[in-house]
Amino acid sequence: MDPLPNPAPLASKLRNTLVRYHSIGDGEHKNVVCYIFFQKDATVWRKPSEEFSGYLYKAQGVVEDVTNRIVDHIRPGPYRLDWDSLMTSMDIMETFEENCCVMRYTTAGQLWNIIAPREFVDFSYTTSYEDGLLTCGISLDYGEVRPNFVRGFNHPCGWFCVPLKDSPGHSLLTGYIQTELRGMLPQSAVDTAMSSTLANFYSDLKKALKT
């Protein structure tokens, strides 16, 4: 088990990595993408990850609410467990400052438990970005793995949320996700799980914001 990292340089590196992903134009992203699909709440692309042998997924959709409230529902805190259908538990293990922490969370089994429940320990950081916010994270090798869980690993992930200029009550939410589920899994099961997870994320979030 590694010791906890110094949060300041890790937060800076994480933010810079996500901003670099976000600076890739849609045209450039689509030229190297392997797969693209649309659904009612979001559009999702994927391309080979630079971090591991899987994919970097990009999801984007418009959400009807203000930026701060949307990000409060996404980042570690009291709202996330109430609406995220995949997450089954969440604990804040360490808090460095109000916008920076280490959290441990678990996810439910998926695809009739072909994918068993997973556990993640993530460093999480929320910061300003343009007129909105960026909340991002990366997994750490920290803490003992609990029984009955496989420890997954999130390579740099994050959500950019910025208000729409012509409609301040709506925000553009763009996510970058690259999750290594680990364990002996068929690639087709991983691809199906990631697609359904991102589709449900937007629809579940929108329902939660309306309550």
Automatic annotation (TrEMBL):
Q: Which residues lie in coiled coils?
A: none
Q: Which GO terms describe its molecular function?
A: cholesterol binding; cholesterol transfer activity
UniProt-listed SMART domains: START
Q: Which InterPro entries does this one have?
A: StarD4, START-like_dom_sf, START_lipid-bd_dom
Recite the lineage of the species: Eukaryota, Metazoa, Chordata, Craniata, Vertebrata
Q: Which organism is it from?
A: Promerops cafer (Cape sugarbird)
Its gene? Stard4
The residues covered by the START domain are 45-211
Task: List the Gene3D superfamilies hit by this protein, alphabetically.
Answer: 3.30.530.20
Top-level taxon: Eukaryota
Protein name in the entry: STAR4 protein
Gene Ontology CC, one term: cytosol
Q: Which PANTHER family match?
A: STAR-RELATED LIPID TRANSFER PROTEIN 4 (PTHR47006:SF1)
One GO biological process term is: cholesterol transport involved in cholesterol storage
